[in-house]
Amino acid sequence: MPPTDPNYTVLRSQLASLTTEEHRPDLADIDRRPTLDVARLMNDEDATVPAAVAERLPEIAAAIDAIAARMTRGGRLIYAGAGTAGRLGVLDASECPPTFNTDPSEVLGLIAGGPSAMVTAVEGAEDSKELAAADLTALAVADRDVVVGISASGRTPYAVGAVEHARAIGALTIGLSCNADSALAAAAEHGIEIIVGPELITGSTRLKAGTAQKLVLNMISTLTMIRLGKTYGNLMVDVRASNDKLRARSRRIVALATGASDLEIEAALTETDGEVKHAILVLLGSVDGREAARLLAASKGHLRAALQSATAHASTT
């Protein structure tokens, strides 16, 4: 965009009004300071982020409850963003299958410019609302789904366009940004604005803003999965044992939940094809693998409810 383009003047004015783009004259000599001093300064800056997130916990919790309600009815959770924000969304989505045994289609991440934009900038992709609408249309987004637009500035057209398109068709929408009174928050049903202030390096929103977004995305996915019954207490009972480390973790989780011996754990996991949640129900509910599967299906995957059903059935027989 050349300086003579009238849009350039508008965009420059917009950026100048954002706290995440503010210049800090007190750090103008940062490149001349000792490395340890700059490291301490950066660490001090990062330490302010959790407090900024804490100020928005009521909004975050309300959004999570709304997301869980949609997903309980079969909806999907879809993140949409550009650049760092998009990468964080893709990262969070990609961690859900191994952590919570979700189907890859249940939690998705869209980044402006497509998968290649994860490692290489795609020029102009973030500036297109139409591209966001096309990406959501390709996923057949419907009113049962949830779309979370992510943008540090809160003005990125791709993120705003994703939320506007999703809301127009009745999907639940959340806008996560790091500036007050953002267009993204205004476009969404649930606006979450984490105000982290100016960055150590002017405009480098992969720093505090990126950290804030990662913290909130951690909350959104983790707490939603807790609400959906993907944990038992604080144990990852829906973990997918896809490697040696996770297989060892699976056995440890069953042990922590049941107190059973190694032989009992192996037998239960064998009977349930390695499904941790089912194995726990076999051991604690004194049922076989088939009955465990039936009880969990009836309780929509909530282990506590399935255990109550197993206990109630045992007491009447």
Short recap of the structure:
The protein is α/β, with parallel strands linked by helices.
Features:
alpha/beta, about 55% helix, about 325 residues, five-stranded parallel beta sheet, 14 helices
Task: Outline the fold blueprint.
Blueprint: H1 6-16, H2 35-46, H3 49-54, H4 57-72, E1 77-81, H5 83-100, E2 107-111, H6 129-138, E3 146-150, H7 157-168, E4 172-177, H8 183-187, E5 190-193, H9 208-227, H10 244-258, H11 262-271, H12 276-285, H13 289-298, H14 303-315
Parallel strand pairs: 1-2, 1-3, 3-4, 4-5
Helix pairs in contact: 4-9, 5-9, 6-7, 10-12, 11-12, 12-13, 12-14, 13-14
The amount of helix comes to 40-55%
Kindly, what is the distance between the CA atoms of the first and last residues, rounded to a whole number of angstroms? 76 Å
Stretches where pLDDT is under 50 for at least 5 consecutive residues are none
The averaged pLDDT comes out at 93
Largest sheet: 5 strands, parallel
Instruction: Label the overall shape.
Output: elongated
What is the ordering of alpha helices and beta strands? HHHHEHEHEHEHEHHHHHH
Structural class: alpha/beta
Gyration radius, in Å:
23 Å
Number of helices: 14
> Could you tell me the number of beta strands?
5
**What kind of oligomer do you see?**
single chain
Q: Tell me the fraction of residues in β-strands, as a range.
A: 5-15%
Strand order, main sheet: write it out. 2-1-3-4-5
Q: How would you explain this protein's 3D organization?
A:
The protein is of the alpha/beta class and 317 residues long. The chain is 53% helix and 8% strand. The protein is built from 14 helices and 5 strands. A 5-stranded parallel beta sheet has the order 2-1-3-4-5, sandwiched between helices. Helix 7 links the parallel strand 3 and strand 4.
